[in-house]
Specification:
Layout lengths: L2 E4 L6 E4 L10 E4 L3 H10 L4 E5 H5 L5 H11 L2 E9 L4 H20 L4 E6 L11 H18 L3 E4 L10 H10 L3 E2 L3 H6 L4 H8 L5 E4 L1 E2 L4 E2 L8 H10 L5 E4 L8 H13 L11
Parallel strand pairs: 1-4, 1-12, 4-5, 5-6, 6-7, 7-8, 9-12
Antiparallel strand pairs: 2-3, 10-11
Helix pairs in contact: 4-5, 5-6, 8-9
């Protein structure tokens, strides 16, 4: 099994790229030393990472060098996370351009997955066509990623248009994009993560493993989610996709969260040969 770890737990989240004035440049970025974070993640046994698009942009002049550096550490770039509003038609062309640039750069760095989050919640009232517009935009983004040889998937997220089970069902009835379930976001949005995964098992290429204790995100095995049940179900269904641990927003030590999460997976997901000596 391939199991990676998201670098965003190791620093504060900010926006980058002059996004105050130009929507085409809005990106997520974790403030951290990326190479040091890669080394720490590898030291616990993980063999891959996911990055925000803003962190990837630091390597825009030499994405192949990033790929080589990761390989030298025994890591690969599983995926890159990016987001957009999607529903504002005047802005969408620039947002799609940005997603395309991210996909090109990510593909050169060896990434397999392009994870898409977002779908703006309007300040006044949601337009009744917003979900349809979101679905259409995601299909366009999926096509852009496919041209770069990447798998695009949508990540339902708190604070977006797609939080609840009903919203998830509505969106996936309107778009063909793949589904990247984040287990804690599903639980926090009122869903039973296992039941959602049972419904959409055939369109899941990538899973974000995250735990939830009813108040916040916590290391794997420290919350309320039936992680073992979900992992066992997918394994019995011959799931052949990738797994990524993401413990963002955790109030504790990010290094300890990384270690605890790997130790939990060592008893549930990882083959013996993949465990640390």
């Amino acid at each position: 099994m391939n199991v990676g770890y998201m670098t965003n737990a190791f620093g504060s989240l900010v926006g980058s790229g002059g996004g105050v004035t130009s929507v085409k440049d809005v990106r997520y970025e974790t403030i951290c030393n990326d190479m040091q974070v890669f080394q720490k993640i590898r030291s616990f046994g993980f063999n891959g990472v996911e990055m925000f698009d803003g962190n990837l942009d630091k390597f825009a002049d030499d994405p192949e060098g990033l790929k080589d550096n990761l390989q030298n550490l025994g890591l690969s770039l599983y995926g890159v996370y990016t987001g957009a509003n999607f529903i504002y038609k005047d802005a969408w062309r620039d947002e799609l351009w940005r997603i395309q640039q991210t996909a090109k750069l990510a593909a050169r760095a060896g990434a397999k997955h392009l994870v898409l989050g977002g779908g703006a919640v309007r300040g006044v009232s949601q337009n009744e066509n917003d979900m349809k517009v979101l679905g259409q935009a995601l299909d366009e983004a999926e096509a852009v990623a496919a041209k770069e040889g990447m798998i695009a998937s949508y990540h339902p997220h708190l604070g977006s248009m797609v939080e609840t089970p009903e919203q998830i069902d509505e969106l996936f009835s309107l778009s063909s994009i793949a589904f990247c379930p984040d287990l804690a976001h599903l639980a926090a949005g009122g869903a039973d993560p296992l039941e959602v995964i049972k419904v959409y098992k055939n369109r899941i290429p990538y899973v974000h493993l995250k735990d939830w204790d009813g108040e916040g995100f916590v290391p794997l095995g420290k919350g309320e989610i039936d992680l073992r049940g979900i992992i066992n179900f997918l394994q019995k269904e011959n799931y052949s996709g990738d797994w990524l641990v993401e413990i963002d927003g955790y109030a504790g030590d990010p290094v300890e969260a990384c270690r605890l999460s790997y130790d939990f997976l060592a008893t549930t997901l990882l083959d013996k040969k993949q465990r640390k000596d």
